[in-house]
Amino acid sequence: MLFLKIKQGAHRGASLVSSRVAAVVGAVLLSLVAIVFARFGEISQDLFERLATAYPYVPAILTPAMFTLVVFATQCWSPAARGSGIPQVIAAGRNSEQSSKGPLISLKTAAAKFAGTIALLLVGGSVGREGPTVQISAAIMAAVHRWLRVPISAGVVIAGGAAGVAAAFNTPLAGVAFAIEELAAAFEQKIAVFVMAVVMLSGLVSLGLAGDYVYFGTMNQRSSIAETVMIAPLAGVIGGLAGGLFSRAMIAMTWSSWPPLVAMRSRPLLSAAGCGLIVALMGILTQGLTWGTGYHTTKQLLAGSEAPILFGPAKLIATLATALSGAPGGIFAPSLSVGAGLGQLLAILFPDGSTGVVILLAMVSYFTGVVRAPLTASIIMMEMTAERSMILPLFAAALIADWVSSLVCRQKLYHALSRQFHSS
Known about the structure:
mainly alpha; Clc chloride channel; 2 domains
């Protein structure tokens, strides 16, 4: 009896060691891949911007053609790689044991997601790499656990996805918040500890290799308390309304029985070409400002520069068209750019105020309106701008945006989209 207990204790100890080794190795690997993914994305976007500058009308042909090719390749060889990647991770977390053997978080799907997102950035697609990084990171974490023969639980999937957010934006707190709000349906204490450990490790690796950078740079503009109290609710309402409409359009494209949308779903390649053409036209009309993630324009707006007044609406249309195409790619970074553009419009109402503050509040509001995760939105904006003094106004605007968005679109975007992957 004593020998049996000793044997069982040794087995549990070995399993615990294997689990911790898997977490450490997975966190390091996914951080390295996230850094490489980010670098490839930057190079791809830069190459396309040079091409579009030299030949302004080439995107009218190139972008629709690439959209069609990417959607065709995704449908044929890796259907689970389409779209953002976050709905797939949510679906995988609900049945982690079955999903660990399926396509949702396989390395093949991760490779297809990587290639598809880069391909869209090569032709100016309005995509972000953050959602894809979540799926890629979850796939890497699951693969490491399989290699070391450690059981794949919901915590493993959630931790991988959360670390992906942290590594993509260099925002570890937002990674934990995102796990709580979006990835975990029932967030247990033991999962919380595991998530924080993996996020911390991935953050340290990213910090060591990429440096201690602030994603959008430090914002030095300030606004009075009275003015902020006026701006935050208005930004919350406008951002929540616009974000809710975006989410409603995305969900309708997936589930609606409205004949035009059914017709679009039945002709995916034609729809992808049409969406690519819309993206190309928006880029040409704005002289390239809507290409890619929109990172540089957003950073300039936060620093006090100006963009064409139609940047926000045009970026929204380009992002929606890209997302509706069915190609791999995320909406995190483009949504922040849309929010910045809407903030520039809102700032017209406050000519004597701080434009940067208005834009920051509009960004958190629109982002919340889309993803319905106010805690994540507030923390991610705080970490990406090093603007800790704005955390309360950011949270207030995000809560209002969440409420307004829920009136426009009752379902949360990622959870509604995840239902299509439940059988995978």
